[in-house]
Known about the structure:
Blueprint: H1 12-45, H2 73-78, E1 85-87, E2 94-100, H3 105-111, H4 138-147, E3 151-157, H5 165-176, H6 180-187, H7 190-200, H8 207-213, H9 220-228, H10 233-245, E4 253-256, E5 259-261, H11 267-285, E6 292-295, E7 304-307, E8 314-316, E9 321-322, H12 328-336
Parallel strand pairs: 2-3
Antiparallel strand pairs: 1-3, 2-4, 4-5, 6-7, 7-8, 8-9
Amino acid sequence: MAKKLTIGIPDVKNIKLSASKIMVVALIVMAFAIGMLYQKVQNLQGSGTSTTLGAQTAASPVAQAPAGPKVTLDQVKALWGKDLIKFGDANKKLLFVEVGDPSCPFCHAATGENHAIYQALGGSNFKLIADGGTYDAPVLEMRKLIDNGTASFAYVYYPGHGNGEMGMKALYCANEKGKFWDVHDLLMSDNGYNLMNNTVKNDKTQSGTVATFLKSAVDPTFLKSCIDSGKYDQRLGADMTIAGSLGISGTPGFIINDTVYPGAYGWGDMKTTVDTVSDESKTSFETPSVSFPTTIATGNLISSFNFLIGTDFLLCSTVTICTPSNFNSAKASMVESRFSHFTQFSVPTAAL
């Protein structure tokens, strides 16, 4: 005789009850997680001022110009006439501006000097290439161009995180001694970040602590005296006004000529602008790397000259040094016909 197969049917009421309990537990866990995330964000934002997160190079297959505030090249050039920390002059074809705060975590990431900050910024997006990550810190690359004379640089303070006043005064003082970058690198390290945000916190009585921390770069007696003098107290506000005039109200903010990058963009994003400026510069000022002797036989003309490539002047055969402004038309014609018959090239005396 065949056995009957009995299938138990669970109590529907119990299923509904269990599902309700699971849902309640899930909601409690989610609420806890959201609360923890909110607290973490609040901790990073410090006193409530804004810290801006820019586009990430590692996540961007194609770098694009940011939709940041609009500035003009004349506005940027004018910064070199103001009382700011700056290197080079406004005549460079490549001008870098950083609006920063020594206490700002994203500024620390952008400098490439803090190898641990990425852990506080949500994971590997800001892990440096040198540490096995993908983030190419822009300030490191900018400094190469500043050091080799290709670019000029200006630094403007803005309280993007809110605890950087004492650190910024130390930077002003260090700049007096030509030690801006030395102090900058110490402040923008992991230890410097902890000092600014966990110990000093804009406390003016901590000037000695700041000076001692920076003693490997600047004489601590000088530095403490300089910070305590109050000579740079008003300078903080002046920098903030300048940052506002550039449309930047968070840190970091970078400007390359007239393009604004409002956040911790990677160098790969910025390099598009840098390369464009460099290409335009080459088109405007470079000439073939050979000399073209030219002989003219007739009329009211210069008898001969050599166009010396790689220099900033023309050397005439009459031992007269002629500036480019006097020979703009001659240079243009020479370059345009550089592969033609130069015996037909002529320069009217009126061009001199």
